[in-house]
Specification:
Elements lengths: L1 H22 L5 H9 L5 E4 L8 H5 L6 H14 L3 E5 L2 H6 L1 H17 L3 E5 L33 H4 L5 H15 L5 E5 L15 H14 L5 E2 L14 H9 L3 E4 L4 H12 L6 E5 L9 H10 L3 E5 L38 H11 L8
Parallel strand pairs: 1-2, 1-8, 2-3, 3-4, 4-5, 6-7, 7-8
Length: 365
């Protein structure tokens, strides 16, 4: 009898372990689509406050400025936007975890006030400043696109697995704190993992671990990381993109191409996954990625639309990627929708955004 009881308990424990493992795994296509189509069409911007050159300056206690954020997100709300994609920074967290989480919570309160949800990005390997540091950040050099952006974590951390347990604490602490928070739309675990690397080879080992850390927490929001530069077909064979295709709950991608290329290299390709699709970076006017061309296409296909970015500000992302120090402001902006005071760069663009966001309802195919 005792043996039967022990065997029964072991069987129950095994069943519970398997059940929990399944629960914490990748979302099914059905669950992902149910989540997506139960909400409004997500449309918004990659956002960084006008006072900040990078996420360090954004989130540090000495420079964090909620009044600026409140004013800017109020303008985003007036345009009809309901999503902002944001970037965190690990150095600011490690300097003061409690304070950092408090400031993030304050930011999310402001988002909620304006009917906006956040796509939260933990890491990015982009940035001209390769070794980020806390404290006062450099002033932007006039004429250069996004001159003070920083990677998170720094390259030395990515190359040293001995430092990854510290990063695990950062990721899991934030996920546990906000895992059931309706103000967060989804988690981006790593921004553009193939950018500036050998096809993502340096990023993939770290990102594999990060997905494991996140699945252990099992947040109520979906997990993703974006496919990028999808006009280059062979990139889909990169191991980092194979990993994304097999592990993300929701497909996210970046494309700064004209509507025809967005259709053929992104929409047609990613719809085959049977999961929700969100474009989390677009808008490069000189390359044909325009509000008039791309935004209606994304809406027509029920694809979320998060352009880069909102205001002309200290990041200087209205300048061309190839701009040089001292270059004058271009007549045709690359990114961004508004001047510093909230005046539209192009009235026709903001009018179209308001028109298309007036009705955000989606019908599941």
């Amino acid at each position: 009898m005792k043996r039967i009881v022990i065997i029964s308990m072991l069987a129950l424990m095994t069943a519970l372990t398997v059940s929990c493992s399944r629960k914490a795994g990748r979302w099914s296509e059905e669950k992902a689509n149910e989540w997506y189509y139960s909400q409004d069409w997500p449309v918004g911007v990659n956002y960084i406050p006008g006072y900040a050159v990078n996420p360090i300056e954004w989130w540090q206690e000495s420079t964090f400025n909620p009044s600026v954020i409140d004013w800017e997100l109020g303008i985003a709300q007036d345009l009809g936007l309901n999503v902002v994609r944001i970037f965190l920074n690990d150095l600011v967290y490690f300097d003061d975890p409690k304070g950092f989480k408090g400031r993030l919570n304050q930011f999310l309160d402001i988002c909620e006030k304006h009917g906006i949800k956040a796509i939260v990005t933990f890491y990015t390997n982009g940035g001209k400043i390769r070794e980020p540091k806390l404290g006062p950040q450099p002033e932007p050099t006039p004429g250069i696109h996004n001159p003070c952006w920083v990677p998170s974590p720094g390259p030395a951390v990515l190359a040293d697995p001995a430092q990854w347990p510290k990063q695990k604490k950062y990721v899991q602490d934030l996920l546990r704190t906000f895992k059931n928070d309706s103000r967060i739309y989804l988690w981006h675990l790593f921004n553009e993992p193939s950018w500036g690397t050998r096809n993502g080879e340096e990023i993939l080992p770290f990102m594999r671990e990060e997905f494991k850390w996140a699945r252990q927490v099992n947040p109520s929001q979906p997990l993703s990381a974006p496919f990028d530069n999808m006009n280059n077909h062979p990139r889909m064979q990169y191991p980092v993109f194979s990993f994304l295709g097999e592990n993300v709950d929701v497909i996210t991608f970046h494309s700064y191409n004209d509507p025809d290329l967005v259709q053929t290299t992104c929409i047609d390709k990613f719809k085959q996954y049977g999961r929700p699709v969100i474009c989390t970076e677009w808008l490069a006017r000189p390359a044909g990625s325009t509000v008039e061309g791309v935004l209606p296409l994304l809406k027509e296909n029920n694809i979320g639309a998060v352009n880069f970015g909102l205001f002309k500000n200290k990041t200087q992302t209205y300048l061309n990627w190839s701009s040089k120090a001292g270059d004058p402001d271009p007549e045709l902006w690359l990114h961004d929708l508004l001047f510093e005071d909230g005046t539209p760069y192009r009235e026709a663009e903001t009018a179209l955004i308001r028109e298309l966001t007036a009705d955000k309802t989606m019908t599941r195919p």
